[in-house]
Amino acid sequence: VTVKSSNKDPMTAAGEESDDAPKEKPWETTLKTTVVHVEAGEFRGHKVSLWDLLHSRYIPQENRKEILELYEAGELTLEQVKTVVTTIVTKTAAEERVEPDKPEDGPRAEPVATEAEPSPLHGNRAWEE
């Protein structure tokens, strides 16, 4: 019974996956083929696709989800996505570089000062306008 049920589920899942796999959405393809040059963190000196940047450790999951939803909906242009993603990656990599040298209580004050700077990362309403 276990074998039958485990065979049944993968077949259903495989059928669904094969239906979706060839139909990559055009906006996904665009993000995967658009390469940017980011001089930050592990990407320094390399050209990287926006897709890889979005799925890197530098972009928090909630930000990634929001950016992808806004881009798919047409509320963000490709240029805006480039700007937002490269800014997040650059700032996050810079914060990582600074934090190890500071005491554990120090970094908590640092992001407050950083967040006060105007940028496309803050204020989701700015993206919509």
From TrEMBL:
Annotated segments matching region Disordered? 1-28, 92-129
Comp. bias (Basic and acidic residues): 93-108
Q: What is this protein called?
A: EPIPL protein
Query: Could you tell me which species this protein originates from?
Result: Sterrhoptilus dennistouni
Q: Which gene encodes it?
A: Eppk1_0
